[in-house]
Amino acid sequence: MPSSKEYSYLISAAVDYLEKKGYDQIRADVPDKEKPAAIVRQNDEESFVPDITARRNGGKCYFDIVTESKSDKLKTAGKWRLFSTLAEHRNGEFYLLVPYGKLSFTNRLLEKHGITAKILKMQDVEKVADVEEMVSA
User: Fold this and answer.
1) What confidence score (pLDDT) does residue 131 get?
2) Bridge-partner residues for 60, per DSSP?
């Protein structure tokens, strides 16, 4: 799991990237944005909060930063399945923001549990985001 400073950086970079790519109504736990709402899974009342939500072309998109946790793979898969299903029902997409070194873990979990998600590598996101601005802020 990344440190809270590193996690905040990843979220900020992703928000900047999404703004540049034309997403709107972006919600994330960063200054000047509303936090995403918790989503309650109906079958067991467990709630999950996506790292980022946004709208594009009329659809609602959900974004989650991959944090590899060997002990919580089942919970992670359940959360991703929920976000994927919601995105599909709301004409959007579910994206996983994958930090360096987490791609094979992510692909294995998606394949094992039959989850549909688009992959955004964080190093590609950082190329578009104003990283220098965030580091100096």
Assistant:
1) 55
2) 55
* Token pair in block for residue 52: 């980022």
pLDDT digits (tens, 9 = 90+) for 53-80: 999 999 999 999 998 776 688 889 999 9
- Alpha carbon 114 to its chain centroid, in Å, reads 18
| % of the chain surpassing 70 pLDDT | 90
Q: What is the pLDDT of residues 91-114, one digit of tens each?
A: 999 999 999 889 999 999 999 999
Of 69, 78, 63, nearest in space to 15 by CA = 63
Residue 28 tokens read as: 């994330």
Q: State both tokens at 128.
A: 């578009």
**Which residue ranges form the domains of the chain, and what is each CATH number?**
4-136 (3.40.1350)
Question: DSSP state, 92?
Answer: -
Q: DSSP 3-state assignment of 104?
A: helix
CA–CA distance, 101 with 82 (Å, rounded to integer): 24
- Minimal CA–CA distance to 62: which of 108, 35, 96? 96
Which residue type does 91 have?
N
